[in-house]
Amino acid sequence: MGSLVIVFLVAPISSRADQPTDFRVITVSQNPKADRQQDEINQLRERVQALEEVQSVEELRPKFGMNLGAFGDVNYLTKNRESKHPAFSLGPLDLYSTGNYGPRLNFLAEVQVESEMNNEGHFDVERLWVGYTFSDLLIVRAGRHHTALGYWNKTYHHAKQHFLTVDRPFFLAFEDDGGILPVHTVGIELSGAKAINGSRWMYELDFGNGHRIDPTSRLLMPNQSSDNNSAKQVALRLSTQPSGIPGLTIGLFGTNDRIGLQTDQNLDERIYGADVSYVQGAVEFITEYFKLMNLENNANAYYVQLGIKIARNLTPYTRYESMNVEATDPYFVELRNNADRFQEIVGIRYDIDELRSALKFQLRHDHEEGSETFNVLEAQWSFSF
After folding, report:
1. What are phi and psi of 242, to 5 degrees?
2. Distance CA 153, CA 145 (A)
3. How many CB atoms lie within 10 A of CB 119?
4. Main-chain dihedrals φ then ψ at residue 288, nearest 5 degrees
5. Same domain, yes or no, for 37 and 114?
6. Fewer C-beta within 10 Å: the chain N or C terminus?
7. 270 vs 275: CA distance, rounded Å
8. Which residues have a Cβ under 8 Å from the Cβ of 55 and sit 6 or more positions away?
9. What's the domain range around 29?
10. pLDDT of res. 118
């Protein structure tokens, strides 16, 4: 309802006959509650306008670093395959940042600062991509990303705070750490997911530069700025999360990669495998199998890991990991790590804060064919901030 207007005729105080009559108009609201609501609406409009002006300015500012995060770890190891003496060591400092412009355009950058034996450090760009989400079925990313090979490589990335254990399985090590698998790809990745009958189905498809074996370091290296042949690596992982078993993920994956060898020749290396993981409640179970093949040779690698939380912040775990190769395989002949090897690990993780910091203690039995066997005691304090 509107306002009621009442007109009062007020007689003059003076006795003069020619004094003009005084008319006063007084507005009396019939709905004072509506007037208060209108005032509040006007105030809200002013606030929204001010926020929109601020947001328009914020959109013009760089997003990198506004959500900068860091991961790190400090370690102690007894005598092991890499060190003749017990020693403390600093793990890489992992810096990452993501940016989003609206609901579809996004970016990620991950850089590691690693220390060398001479106490000097260097930077490694581990992941760097720009992505666009067209729909749940199609997400496109271009840049350097983790190859779609198995569960671990696409889930845990570089932050050891996320690992239940001290480190990755040895054959899943990154290329510059002596790994045997092409775990990074420079190129394009397509991914998507769809729910069917309550189950979730996912795909990840990579298309990028192939890898090469560096003749000096004998390490497998991604071709980051060029390619040593015209072929491109293709990798595909298909996975599902059945509705009837929450926490279960089953995946199949494979890749074909034309590897550049030291002899300026190329070798078509095919890798196939499967992964099963169950992470639910107090249980973490992960297993993966890899089959590596070229024209005349075969190799295989696998691991099985199990952890069971026995208290809110205490999780004992165990893992067995193995790699078997052929001595004549040209792929492994040129790589630094090219012998049969297996490890048995038992340990315990104590979460100081489940997301931010953890202490891990483990005993690792490390056996390599033709080399010394080591029983290594390891301790790690991992953190993120």
Report:
1. -60, 140
2. 10
3. 6
4. -140, 145
5. no
6. N
7. 17
8. none
9. 3-48
10. 59
User: Rounded distance, CA 350 to CA 357, Å?
Assistant: 9
How many domains in the chain?
Answer: 2
Contact indicator for 191, 144 with CB cutoff of 8 Å? no
- Rounded CA separation 20/162 (Å): 89
Cβ contacts of 148 within 8 Å, gap of 6 or more: 154, 189, 204, 205, 206, 235, 236, 237, 253, 255
CA distance 237 to 266: 25
Q: What are the φ/ψ torsions at residue 330 (nearest 5 degrees)? A: -65, -25
Spatial CB neighbours of 252, under 8 Å, sequence gap ≥ 6: 237, 238, 239, 273, 274
| 249 and 203 belong to one structural domain | yes
In the beta sheet, which residues pair with residue 87? 77
H or E stretch at 54: helix 32-59
Beta-carbon neighbour count of residue 290 at 10 Å?
24
- pTM of whole model > 0.85? no
Q: Where residue 181 sits, what CATH number does that domain have?
A: 2.40.160.10
Q: How far apart are CA 182 and CA 85, in angstroms?
A: 31
Judgement on whether residues 204 and 322 belong to the same structural domain of the protein: yes
88 shares a domain with 31: no
Burial of 151 (0-12, 13-18, 19+ CB in 10 A): buried
Is residue 39 one of the residues assigned to a domain?
Answer: yes
Within-domain flag for 29? yes
Q: What is the pLDDT of residue 225?
A: 85
Here the contacts of 359-365 (C-beta below 8 Å, separation 24 or greater) are: 360/165, 360/166, 362/165, 362/166, 362/317, 364/166
Q: Which of 67, 111, 71 is nearest to 91 (CA)?
A: 71
Output the six-digit token pair for 187: 């190129």
Same domain, 228 and 330: yes
Q: Is residue 201 part of a domain?
A: yes
Asked if residues 99 and 106 have their Cβ atoms less than 8 Å apart, the reply is yes
Question: Alpha-carbon distance 367 to 343, whole Å?
Answer: 6
Q: Which residues of the chain have pLDDT under 70?
A: 1-35, 50-66, 116-121, 263
Count, residues in the chain = 385
